[in-house]
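A favour, since you know our structure tokens better than I do. Would you make up a two-line entry for one protein for me to read? Write everything out right here, beneath this request.
=====
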Amino acid sequence: MAEAGAPEEVPVERRDLIVLALVSVVGGILIAIWTVSPEFSPEFFQAIFVGACLLAFFLFIPIMGTRLFIDDWREK
């Protein structure tokens, strides 16, 4: 148990980063297809990259929270 005022550390596991990367890349591809016409062009690959980075930024905490929730559920 953490002391009052001391931050509780949450370990980041390799599988968390793998799930985050997969979800971000697939989501980035879907965002790119939705916003730019899918063709072999630098604009399309840039849209994939921007979408993937956006999703990775906003989904890091929810993915970590989901993993912690699942770990707590398995312990009970």
